[in-house]
Design brief:
152 residues; Arc Repressor Mutant, subunit A; 5 helices; 2 strands; 59% helix; 9% strand
Length: 152
């Protein structure tokens, strides 16, 4: 195959990748809404979930649902609104702060400053790479110089 053929294949693969990322984003948002709906309906039916829903997952769901960033106080209010049981925590706000910091360290959310001294957290949406970014990424991968992922 000639270089032109490789470029065409790369263009096609990149376009498909971008399309699938957009679909995954829509699916993630829909799954988050369904998760909330199921939890609310379970409470209304007097049922207890068979699989415990942890604070990290609940924070992920809350942050995925909003377009902007939320402060830990806002996250707590959203958790209450979806019926997440915070009573098991002695200091629920401290647990939320710790969870959000861990999600930021793992690269799932980013910490932003709204006002001086006011920090908020935003879900990192998956974004498609440009063709140039994909080529650079592939080159780094081939050279074995990609940064290693940190374990959470």
């Amino acid at each position: 195959m000639a270089e032109r053929d490789y470029r065409q294949a790369l263009d096609a693969a990149t376009r498909e990748y971008e399309t699938l990322l957009a679909k995954r984003g829509r699916l993630d948002r829909r799954l988050a809404r369904l998760h909330e709906t199921i939890a609310a309906l379970q409470r209304l039916c007097g049922l207890t979930p068979t699989v415990a829903w942890g604070l990290s997952d609940a924070c992920r769901v809350v942050l995925r649902r909003v377009d902007g960033a939320l402060t830990p106080l806002e996250v707590r209010e959203k958790l209450r609104a979806i019926g997440f049981d915070l009573s098991r925590y002695v200091n629920d706000l401290a647990a939320i702060h710790t969870t959000l910091k861990r999600l930021a360290l793992s690269g799932e959310v980013k910490r932003v400053t709204r006002l001086p001294g006011e920090h908020a957290y935003a879900w990192l949406r998956v974004r498609a790479m440009t063709l140039e970014q994909a080529l650079n990424h592939m080159e780094l991968a081939l050279l074995g110089t990609l940064p290693r992922e940190r374990k959470a």
